[in-house]
Every structure is written in structure tokens, then in C-alpha cells.
Amino acid sequence: MSTEQYNAAVLKRAEPPRERRCGFLEALWFTLASIAAGGWLTNHAAAADSAKDYPTRPIRAIVPQTAGSSIDTLGRIFAARMSEALGQQIVVDNRAGAGGLLGMEIGKNATPDGYTLIISSNAG
């Protein structure tokens, strides 16, 4: 048998390619991803609807450093620009002490309503 005859015989016996079937784990992953995406879109649509009139009151920007420090200066520049952009007053609140821990603690315990910001740096 020549090489061409052998290859032709092998090709005749070769099975046609099977259709790719979706396995259980792939179907489960697709289902969970669809549910998560639907929930994400629903939550973001509701959040966008409720955020139409934000901000309705002054925003508090906590700076856990002393007044006049470099981060305080940057925080005040940020507050002025954001105040112009949002059309609402941003109050800079310096809370120095314990290496910035006091201001961070106040920010951590604030009501999570979007009206309290912490302006800090990662430098000591």
C-alpha cells in the first residue's frame, strides 16, 4: 500500500468532527454569570436613578493631617474644584492626631451615604 492509499484510507475512516457540547460546569458558569450581570445592571440602574439629585447637602472632606500640610493644601484645592463641579459646598475638616488614625477612624465610622470623603496620602 502506498502512502497516498494509506492516507486516503485513514481519511475515509476518520470520524466527522463532533459538535461541541456544553458541559455541566460551562452551563452552570454561564447561568451564574447571567444572573450576576442582571443583578449588577439592576443595582446600577437603581443607583443611577437615586443619584440624580446628588449632592443635596454639603460634603465633608476629612483630612487626617494638620492644617497647612501638603495633603491639606491638595485637599483644599480638590475641594474647591469639586465644589465648582458639583455646585455644592465641600467642607474640609482637619482631624490630625495619632499619625492620621483619628481622622481615618472618623471617616470609617461615618454614615456611608456619599457625603463624607477622606483625603489622605499613603506617605507617612
Protein architecture, described:
This protein is mostly helical and 124 residues long. It is built from 4 helices and 3 strands, in the order H-H-E-H-E-H-E. The protein has a 3-stranded parallel sheet with strand order 2-1-3. It has helices spanning 3-13, 24-50, 70-86, 101-109, and strands at residues 59-63, 90-94, 116-118.
Structure keywords:
124 residues, mainly alpha, D-Maltodextrin-Binding Protein, domain 2, 3-stranded parallel beta sheet, 3 strands, 52% helix, elongated
Give me the secondary-structure topology:
Blueprint: H1 3-13, H2 24-50, E1 59-63, H3 70-86, E2 90-94, H4 101-109, E3 116-118
Parallel strand pairs: 1-2, 1-3
In short:
With 124 residues, the chain is mainly alpha-helical.
Order of helices and strands: HHEHEHE
Low confidence ranges: none
> Beta-strand level of the residues, as a percent range?
5-15%
**How large is the count of helical segments?**
4
Can you give the helix content as a percent range? 40-55%
CATH superfamily of the domain at 59-118: Bordetella uptake gene, domain 1
